Amino acid sequence: MGRWRNVLRTPLGLTATVFTVGVLALAVVAPILWTDEANAVDTSNILASPSAEHWAGTDNLGRDIFYRVLVATRLTVRLALSATALAVVVGLLIGTASFLLGRRAGRVVNAGVNIAVAFPGLLLALFFAVIFGVGATGAVLAIGLAGAPAFARLTQTLVASVAARDYVAAAQVAGVGRVRILLRHVLPNISEPLVVNATIGAGGALLSFAGLSFLGLGVQQPAYDWGRLLYDGIQAIYVNPAAALAPGAAVLVAGLAFNLFGESVAKGLGVQTIGVQSLPETATDRGEAPDVAHQTSATDSAPTDTVLDVRDLVVSFPGPDGPIRPVRGVSFSVRRGEAVGVVGESGSGKSLTALAVTRLVGDPGRVDAERLELLGADLLAEDTKAQRHLLGTSLAMVFQDPMTSFNPTQRIGGQLAEVARHHQGMNRKEALARAVDRLDAVRIDQPEQRAHQYPHEFSGGMRQRAMVGMGLMGEPALIVADEPTTALDVTVQQQVLDLLKAIREEDGVALVLISHDVTVVAEVCNRVLVMYAGRIVEDLPAADLATGARHPYTRALVAAVPDMDTDLDRPLAVIPGRPVDPADVPVGCAYAARCPLASARCREEDPPLESDSLGRRVACWHAGEPIALEIEDRELEDVKAR
């Protein structure tokens, strides 16, 4: 409410609010008070000029024009609001269709909206008026449908921006249906801009209605609105100009009141209004490039305790010169109770691999794999209720940014309870009790009180723990944590990591931990997958990460992390060059351009990911070869020179 009070604190906002309330109040009381005076016929006083008795004169039947303008307020406002409501409803249905219907049908709907928006609104209104015929009903349909494309475009943009948020992805991982996500998580978060633009749209609808009635296509006699009165007044403008000025002034004042009120609300709330230039930007792909790893498996069949089995995973996106594959054939498996870390630079494919596993790669991305199974269930199969139930109860996703992981308009307890109500058949009371229990399980103090608070009332660490608690509402067999300690201080990071470790050890839950920090992964995980340019280049035990890594890239990642033994007199170790662009992956080993061991063979042949006698895997033609000291020294000199 405080934000809405801001509207009244500016002179423009207060003035616009007073005028808008005045118009609405007049629409209610005017027909009650002055209908008889407005309809009184006086043939002895036809087309009279303004006087003390008739402030705006009389019409061709001697009826008082001023009273008729006042009484016409109700019909004018009612028709304008009806047309606005129709535009909003139809716009919402069309604007949310692409979210509900999926990729192909959504593209058709979007194309239709783009075509409709290209036509001027008044031209569309005239077109529909011809189709539906003259009269008030036809005019409502015409103006409402003419205004729907603008609301549909706005809704599409707002839905797309909210649909990219982590809390929507969390609901998808939980197996919540699209309709429920739309009603519970998307629409509440776009309601303010829709209300603001609907208010402005009401002003536009009022002006459009007056225009249609003035042209004879709207309200017909004996009914009358301001547009009809303006049409009648024009006929006698040379005899009594006030007959046209009075309804024209009413249209002007009411239209300005609605538009200025909407603009004031928009400024007070910080909301953008309808318009091609002011539309919010559509949310795009996540900041990090797709994540993927290519591995070969020792056997064709997965062990019986395998929770996640991924074989030859490929994620692709359309590009100007053909598909771009930021994930290029990743194969790995995770067993019950095992913790697998995924490390690599930004753009190596870590997060995209996680999104593919959790079925969160959106359009226009494409996920292909020889095998992608969770607890033996095919995740590439058609979306079904059983599959959503599996994802909602057996897989938990902990996202990178705890602030965007929860819906800001809903209480924490209600968001956790949604999973239990949707998948476990609990009623509201039982689900909330389960949510309180899960908040307690993730070590949040006063869980009953915290369950009734909003996300902004939680600290960053508490939000992250609550996100883990959401995943524990069911009985997850796998937790996928994508940079769960980002933006948290060191103490809170350790608390979150300890929590994940405790959950894994107590309940036998498998963990996939994605991180840039190799020291974090080495501390928490049993096994580490090192990714570069969309492939897994090394798979080794976490205990061997610091001293037993064989791939030059893995050793460079470890060396780039300073420790207590780092020589402060020498420059920090860096990896020369830049990561590979997924749209331009070179021939041969993708790391060759940055590798001090690269040979001609590295630049011509891409090394396969092969296993050694200990089961460790590495993709390198020079795996394990020492990096000459003089090469390291020369690189350090280059760093100093830069």
Provide a compact summary of the structure.
This protein has 642 residues and is an alpha/beta fold. It is built from 21 helices and 13 strands. An eight-stranded mixed β-sheet has the order 7-8-9-3-10-11-13-12, sandwiched between helices.
Question: Overview of this structure, please?
Answer:
By secondary structure, the chain is an alpha/beta fold. The chain has 21 helices and 13 strands. Strand 12 and strand 13 form a beta hairpin. The two termini are 55 Å apart.
Q: What distance lies between the first and last C-alpha atoms, to the nearest angstrom?
A: 55 Å
Shape estimate: elongated
- Please count the beta strands (DSSP E, at least 2 residues each): 13
The CATH class designation of the domain at 2-36 and 58-269 is Mainly Alpha
CATH superfamily of the domain at 2-36 and 58-269: MetI-like
Largest sheet strand order:
7-8-9-3-10-11-13-12
Helix content: 40-55%
Instruction: Report mean pLDDT, rounded to a whole number.
Output: 83
Largest sheet report: 8 strands, mixed
- At CATH's second level, what is the architecture of the domain at 2-36 and 58-269? Orthogonal Bundle
